[in-house]
Write a structure and sequence with these properties.
This protein is an alpha/beta fold. The chain has three domains: about 250 residues, Rossmann fold (3-Layer(aba) Sandwich), CATH 3.40.50.620; about 160 residues, Ribosomal Protein L25, Chain P (Beta Barrel), CATH 2.40.240.10; about 120 residues, Ribosomal Protein L25, Chain P (Beta Barrel). About 25% of the residues lie in helices and about 25% in strands. It has twelve helices and 25 strands. Helix 3 links the parallel strand 2 and strand 3. Bound molecules: adenosine-5'-triphosphate and magnesium ion. Adenosine-5'-triphosphate (ATP) binds next to helix 2 and strand 8.
Length: about 550
């Protein structure tokens, strides 16, 4: 970087890395990893971790591994593995040929456990779960040493091998590290490092009857892969002494664990358990329901990878837990789509308008800018004819003084088309306005207006004869309160926003047919939308990503 270029201030992780580089630690290499457990779909919190880990590798010319932390076979499966891979790729990151699995190291991890037993630092404990928990002590009281703590190395080796061979029942024995039952840090009170589980693993099948605990598998996997900086969320800070202890005892390569604050978002839950519950209890349609904070949900909703990466950049990394306003995420997608999304005319709540002085059966092709932010996107042709639809909300029979849209005897401009004047209001029996009869000024065509008229309002419209009908799904925040999981009396499910999905029929300009599934567009004046994968040859399905402006700030909750 040249000296004149402005440098963003370094975050605390970058400061640590730059210090290590200056001291030529790890041969001046930076190697990170993103270590998801394949027990659910990734969410926006994981996106923060992905952007951080892959981002640091990019910035410092290093590498970032994708490592599946697959040590809990009951909860993990290949569907999750595949979704995680496609989400990381979609976000724009590449792990090259470094797709690793903790389960690839089961043999090595077992050998390390043998070594720990051999140096007298691990033992097999036959205590029951209740006994173990009783002996663990509390935050204020030290633990009690297990009667099995003084077993000989030979006996421990023998028993551990039998555990491995499936000779004991699940829950009957564990292998524990022998550290210090009086440690103020509960994680150092002889933590379990292996447990018996007679469960089929999605990769190793029935090979194993014992599975390593997180703390054993994680640090050693980091070490095996040559990870230099093992970045994790704050709740692991109290595990760091154990992380270090294990690597020190075994005298293996020792990565540096660094903790940062996890992402919490308002109006959102990010616990995998709660997200799974939303899916299995069918409060949402699937993991990729556009209201879910999962990466696949955000993608289907119309979020771009860039908007998520920009969001991650904006929130930065901190050492203290906090909560980010979801409006910032919504702002990031608006900011990106305002530049990127082409404009489309669509009417969500149609009101029929007949232009009485326009020839019956005539179609005029008008030109419309695709994207005012990007001239190079050019123009498209928009059909105009005698009967059009406008938005119900763009007409008022008795308007207030400064109302510039359509009302009786008043004029308004139809975007990219003509100025029309409302001559007659037609109502049904109930008094609801069902049609407007208008006249147009032939000299007021956009781009070649010689009418001399000045009208303040411009509204969108579509030609009735040419419009496509579509099912539009108006998505909004899934929860109606800021902290749905933080209420002690009520379950988070009680705060699901009943208006989070509103389905409507809409009329859309015919050019909508040229859009691809997932491609974003802006319905002029309404918001950002995209075509849902459920779109078929005879049914357009459109998702709303966000409205043009944040309306939640004004709502009273
Ligand atoms: P659990 O461990 O309870 O299944 P988890 O959300 O921690 O859930 P992991 O698959 O272990 O899920 O997470 C993978 C990585 O993503 C970890 O390094 C974790 O620290 C990080 N991560 C998870 N949630 C967040 C979050 N909300 N903000 C930032 N990073 C997160
Ligand atoms: Mg985790």
């Amino acid at each position: 970087m040249s000296t004149t270029e402005e440098k963003a201030p370094l975050n605390f992780i970058e400061i640590k890395i730059e210090e290590d580089l200056k001291n030529h630690k790890n041969d001046s290499k930076v190697h990170t990893r993103f270590p998801p457990e394949p027990n659910g779909y990734l969410h926006i919190g994981h996106a923060k971790s992905i952007c951080l880990n892959f981002g640091l590798a990019q910035k410092y010319n290093g590498l970032c591994n994708l490592r599946f932390d697959d040590t809990n076979p009951e909860k993990e499966n290949i569907e999750y593995v595949n979704s995680i891979k496609s989400d990381v790729k979609w976000l724009g990151f590449d792990w090259g040929d470094r797709e690793f699995y903790a389960s690839d190291y089961f043999e090595k991890l077992y050998e390390y456990a043998i070594k720990l037993i051999q140096i007298g630092k691990a033992y097999v404990d036959d205590s029951t779960a209740e006994e173990l928990s009783r002996m663990r002590g509390t935050t204020t009281e030290p633990g009690i040493e297990s009667p099995f703590r003084s077993r000989s190395v030979e006996e421990n080796l023998e028993l551990f091998k039998k555990m491995k061979n499936g000779e004991f029942e699940e829950g009957s024995r564990i292998l524990r590290a022998k550290i210090d039952m009086a440690s103020p840090n509960i994680h150092l009170r002889d933590p379990a490092i292996y447990r018996i589980k007679k469960v089929k693993h999605h990769r190793t099948g029935d090979d194993w009857f014992i599975y390593p605990m997180y703390d054993w598998a994680h640090g050693l996997s980091d070490s095996i892969e040559g990870v230099t900086h093992s970045i994790c969320t704050l709740e692991f800070e109290v595990h760091r002494p154990l992380y270090d202890w294990i690597l020190d005892q075994l005298e293996v390569f020792h990565p540096q664990q660094i903790e940062f604050a996890r992402l919490n978002l308002t109006y959102t839950v990010l616990s995998k358990r709660k997200l799974l519950q939303l899916v299995t209890e069918k409060h949402v349609s699937s993991w990729d329901d556009p209201r879910m904070p999962t990466i696949s949900g955000l993608r289907r909703r119309g979020y771009s990878p860039a908007s998520i990466r920009n969001f991650a950049k904006k929130i930065g990394v901190a050492k203290r837990d906090g909560i980010i306003d979801v409006a910032l995420l919504e702002h990031s997608v608006r900011e990106d789509l305002n530049k990127e999304a082409n404009r489309v005319m669509g009417v969500l709540n149609p009101l029929k308008v007949t232009i009485t002085n326009y020839s019956e059966g005539k179609t005029e092709m008008l030109s419309a800018k695709n994207n005012p932010e990007k001239e190079e996107r050019g123009e498209r042709e928009l059909p105009f004819s005698k009967v059009i639809y406008i938005e119900k909300g763009d007409f008022m029979e008795n308007p207030p003084r400064k109302y510039f849209r359509l009302s009786p005897e008043k004029e308004v401009r139809l975007k990219f088309a003509y100025i029309i004047k409302c001559e007659e209001v037609i109502k049904d029996k109930s008094g609801e306005v069902v049609e407007l009869k208008c006249t147009y000024d032939i000299n007021s065509k956009s781009g070649s207006d010689t009418s001399g008229k000045k009208v303040k309002g411009t509204i969108h419209w579509v030609s009735a004869a040419h419009a496509e009908t579509a099912e539009v799904r108006l998505y909004d925040r899934l929860f109606s309160v800021e902290d749905p999981a933080g209420n002690k009396e009520k379950d988070f499910l009680e705060f699901i926003n009943p208006d989070s999905k509103v389905v409507q029929k809409a009329f859309v300009e015919p050019g909508i047919k040229n859009f691809n599934i997932g491609e974003s567009f802006q319905f002029e004046r309404l918001g950002y939308f995209c075509l849902d994968p459920e779109t078929s040859a005879n049914q357009l399905v459109i998702n709303r990503t966000v409205t043009l402006r944040d309306s939640w700030g004004k709502k009273k909750n």
